[in-house]
Amino acid sequence: MTKRWAALLAVLLLAVGTATACGGDDGGGGTKEGTGTITIFSLWGGSEQEAFQKVLTQFTKDTGIETKYESARDFLPVIRTRLAADNPPMMAIIPRPGFVAELAKDDVLISLEDLGLDAGQINENYSDTWTKLTTIDGTVYGVVAKANSKSTVWYKPNSFQENGFEIPKTWDELLEITKQYKAKGKTPWAAGAQGDDNSWTLTDWFEQIYARQAGPDKYTQLFETGEVPFNDQSVKDAVNEMVKILNDQYVAGGIDTVLGISFVDSIGRVFGKNPKAEMLYEGGFVGGIAIGEVNPSLKPGTDIDFFEFPQINPDQSVDVVGGGDVAAAFVNNEDVSKLMEYLASPEAGEIWVSTGAIASPNESVLESAYPNELVKKEARELKEAKSFLFDGSDLLPGTLGQNFGTLLQNVVKNPGDKDNLLDNYQADAESAGFGS
Amino acid sequence: MTVAAEAVGRPAATVTERLVHFITRTPVHLALLAIAVIWLVPTVGLAITSFRPRDDIHATGWWTSFNHFNFTLHNYDLVLENTKMGSSFVNSIIITVPSTLLPLTIGAAAAYAFSWIRFPFRDTIFLMIVALMVVPIQMALVPLLRLFRDLGIADWYVGIWLAHTAFGLPLAVFLLRNFFITLPRDLIEAARVDGASNLRIFLRVVLPLSVPALASYGIFQFLWVWNDLLMALVFISNSDLFPMTKRITEMQGTYGAEYHLLASGAFLLMIVPLIVFFALQRYFVQGLLAGSVK
Amino acid sequence: MSSTAVPGPVGKPRGRRLPAIFRRPGWQGLLFILPAVVLLGALVAYPLVWTIVYSFGDTNSRLDIVSWVGFDNYERLFTRDRVFLNRDSFPPEGALVNNLKWALLYTTISLALGLLIAVLAARVRYESIVKAIIFVPMAIAATAVAIIWKFVYEPDPDIGAANAVLHGAFNLDPIVFIGRADTVNYAIIFAYVWASTGFAMVVLSAALKGIPEEILEAARTDGANEWHIFRRIQFPLLSLPMAVVTVWLTINVIKLFDVIYVLSRGGPGNSSEVIATQMFDELFQNGEGGYAAAIAVVMLLLIIPLMIWNISRFRSERVVT
User: Fold this and answer.
1) Distance in Å, alpha carbon of B69 to nearest chain C alpha carbon
2) Which of the four pLDDT bands, split at 50, 70 and 90, describes residue A367?
3) Which class for A99: exposed (0-12), middle (13-18), buried (19 or more C-beta within 10 A)?
4) How far apart are CA B276 and CA B284, in angstroms?
5) What's the rounded Cα separation, in Å, for the pair B255 and A262?
6) Any idea what DSSP says for residue B35?
7) Listed residue (B231, B256, B255, B229) closest to B244, CA to CA
């Protein structure tokens, strides 16, 4: 009895001691030799993760460097804990460019130059829209690894055919289809915006409408410079249009359900095996998740397809609003440098797009690499856009981005209270020093 | 024999009495039945759901599943392999066992000193430790993260072991000390007279007599750690080391309301506490009662 | 360790050659408490002080302090942060108010139900079964409790039991319990009452059993009915255990995190946010280490009165050795 106790205690203490001894090492200094394994972190699980894994597998085949992909849907909390613990992954693919800027300013990111890469040459393959996101105060901190158009409205072609609907070119036509679906006893829309981690679907809705109604200049002034206040009439107008669709009448289960289910659930409500609604607005990645995870029996082109988010104000040219994920490095070694270079290459882009999960912002990636018409169309949309607007709420500084989603949750729940809610949000933005 | 004779003697009275008794008690029975049903239904529903095929779950309620009998273990296969719940189960054990044994041993040693050794400031120190009992973990998150970073132990289990140990210690010291002082003084004095050292008295006399208290605290701490989500969110950042609580929240984010995965995942998380509960119910209840001061 | 213990009386000669402190009686006591004191000092007390320091600063993404802001974090918390305390609305809203709501409803309902079940169950032969059923949820992780109730509250009446009952029995439209600002708090409170009533029941049941049967019998022979016995004899004797349960439940409320984090993430909007979930979001979603520290300090301040009560109770019961 006694001996066992003592032995146990000894083992435990030893374990603690050993573990304490083998600590992490700090970065700093120039590019060091790699360890043979790279940890890379992002938020995709399921089918999106499998798609990215293909890219990594090819990289390992080419270079012999092992990779370890880690993921957490809760991207920000996890990356922040790891940064605070000084245990960041070697690389991360960051969904929020606003966060890239914050990290760069806090000096925790390794620039391309420090990695020994030629930023100028890498950036030649990307348009300004993308390089702008990775360039902070003149230094380039990564590459945009993937892009997604968010100007995509997902529908069921055979349902449109049955009902004799045409692809809507204008917002009014889209509203008309919505009404007709309802008249035929169907629920036109689904959406999922529960809690902090799904409210971005509402910010996406708002951004599409705002860009098309108020135009790209005002869009930039609202989200980037803060010259247009959030209680501006243009914002209220956009909210008014938004709730023409996002209301109890037209979304599956009403607004309460929208605020009670996740984004992934909303895909299931339109494209699952027991569908409850006909259309879903969200980015290009919906296709990959719908086919890869929710319902593998879907046939692109007949069961699922998308059309471009329709025009609202004919005076404003139709713009693509979308998002992009930035690959950035936290550790400076040769392996990381190689992977960064690889992710910026057309080869990696082509493997990745061939999975149907993403579009590539890399202009050298050939269209023939895309596996189906859905993603080809998305890639074309991205490439041919006269101007590309970046997901505005992802650009807002600090907590404003997250709070914008919360604001819109409250707005769709109580549209009558929007003036008051927008005033409050503007006050918060001002006290956070945005736009002043 | 006499009882039977008596019963035969006045059967009518007994039946009426019983009937009256039963009727006056009926509301009590009904109320208890209703409460029991409300308390059982949620868990039972999820349990049944964890054995139903995905398509059935989304088509009909679990309460209809007895009409068309169709159950499967497939969900458990899926959740163990695809979502790494299997390795998370192991992680939960790796996190929980040291996080239980460390505060138990360290706390018992301190409790022994607070009960049976006189030293300066003993009661003051003891009171200070008791005062730390209700410090919320939130009060330590940021500095602990930084401390573990500076020690270089942030990427493994050591951080969470230490954090759970430290935050479990005040209760251990408090509970065990309160138990140890109830041990017969004569026994300990006798051992002292025989020349036994403090260590020997602690190991040979006090600990063997205190198994119920040690078990109560051990079970309480075990469940506390096993069921914890917050510390896992903060101190386990490497996805290979996620315990089950954290894995389930992660699953919810990736797959949404896919109840064939969530239900079977939740049941894997519940199975160990339920076994502990049914096997060691007495210690378990004592542990929780004792833990009520926390 | 103990293998070095030599059999037989060896007490005397030891320590002769040791420094003065070790000759004082009880120096071994310090040795016994040393690991506990070191761990508590380094991992609880020291961080506690640092968190207070942090609450007066702003941090960067590595949680290093970059500037000192005085009491600004506290001022912002109580005057400008609508998530924490919205004084513009009537009645006020926010995480702090939600915690108060919880403290009132969750505590009262758990206590009342626990008492009711303890009293009722004592009158039937299947008492132990009923008590086991009520008590089992205590063993379940809050994460699992959240999943269990997420499933019960599912809006689709073909999936969620709650809406199936509402639909089947009253033909009501489905209620999205977790998606509505006016139901979400009550829905989660009920889920957590479900998980905690067993605790109140067990404590109160044990206390009831501790009341000597003779007292009750004497009252019965005096002609008191069951209600009077409960009201006049049992209930007053339960006041201390009930206070213990209330304090425990209230501390639970202040620390409340898991079940909300999994079930609603504080939404819709911020309508189900509580102090602990907001603290977590400020720290890890928004990267505001200093602000989060201020919220943690507020949590501590709320708990301190309960702690003082706990300690004074302990002191009054203390057995002197």
Assistant:
1) 17
2) confident
3) buried
4) 8
5) 9
6) H
7) B229
User: How many CB atoms lie under 10 A from the CB of residue C9?
Assistant: 11
Q: Do A108 and C280 touch (CB under 8 A)?
A: no
Q: Distance between CA atoms of A55 and A34, rounded to whole angstroms?
A: 19
> In chain C, at which residue ranges do the beta strands (DSSP E only) sit?
57-59, 65-68
User: At CB < 8 Å, which residues of chain C contact A?
Assistant: 1-3, 60-63, 80, 82, 88, 155, 174-181, 264-270, 280-289
Radius of gyration of chain B (CA): 26
- In this complex, which of B60, B116, B181 lies closest to C319 when CB atoms are compared? B181
- Tell if the CB–CB gap between C179 and A410 is shorter than 8 Å: no
Omega before C268 within 30 of 0, i.e. cis? yes
The three-point CA angle C86-C90-C91 to 5° equals 85
CA neighbor of B198 nearest in space, from C320, C20, C12, C32: C32
| Cα dihedral across residues C130, C136, C138, C143: positive or negative | negative
- To test the contact with chain A by mutation, choose from C83, C163, C176 the residue with the greatest count of A C-beta atoms within 10 A, namely C176
Closest CA to C1 of A4, B105, A12, B114: A4
* Overall average pLDDT of the A157-176 stretch: 93
Q: Got the DSSP string for B45-100?
A: HHHHHTTS-HHHHHHS-GGGTTTS----SHHHHHHHHTT-HHHHHHHHHHHHHHHH
* Summary count for chain B: helices (H), strands (E): 16, 0
Minimal Cβ distance to B255: which of A264, A273, A274: A264
Scanning the structure block, which residue is given the tokens 């706390």?
B107
Contact A263 B250 (CB under 8 A): no
d(CA C102, CA C259): 13
The per-residue pLDDT for range C74-98, each reduced to its tens digit, is 999 998 888 898 887 778 889 999 9
User: Comparing B277 with C129, which gets the higher pLDDT?
Assistant: C129
Distance between CA atoms of residues B238 and A272, nearest Å: 33
Sequence letter at residue C122:
A
Chain A residues with CB inside 8 Å of B99's CB? none
- Would you call B105 and A8 a contact, using CB atoms and an 8 Å cutoff? yes
Which ipTM did the prediction report?
Answer: 0.87
**Cα separations in angstroms, C33 against A136, B168, B290:** 53, 15, 22
Closest of B214, B226, B201, B234 to residue B276, by C-alpha: B226
- Is pLDDT above 80 for C317? no
CA distance C198 to C113: 9
Q: What is the DSSP letter of A329?
A: E
Work out the angle at residue A362's Cα, subtended by the Cα atoms of residues A357 and A364, and round it to the nearest 5 degrees: 115
Distance CA C61, CA A80 (A): 7
Per-residue pLDDT reduced to its tens digit, C185-222: 999 999 999 999 999 999 899 888 888 888 888 888 88
Which amino acid, residue A326? V
AA identity, residue B208: P
Tokens 């640092």 locate to C50
| Contact in structure between C124 and B25 (CB atoms under 8 Å) | yes
Residue B30 corresponds to which tokens in the numbers above?
């009904």
Cα torsion angle, A309, A125, A144, A371, sign: positive
pLDDT band at A284 (very low <50, low <70, confident <90, very high): confident
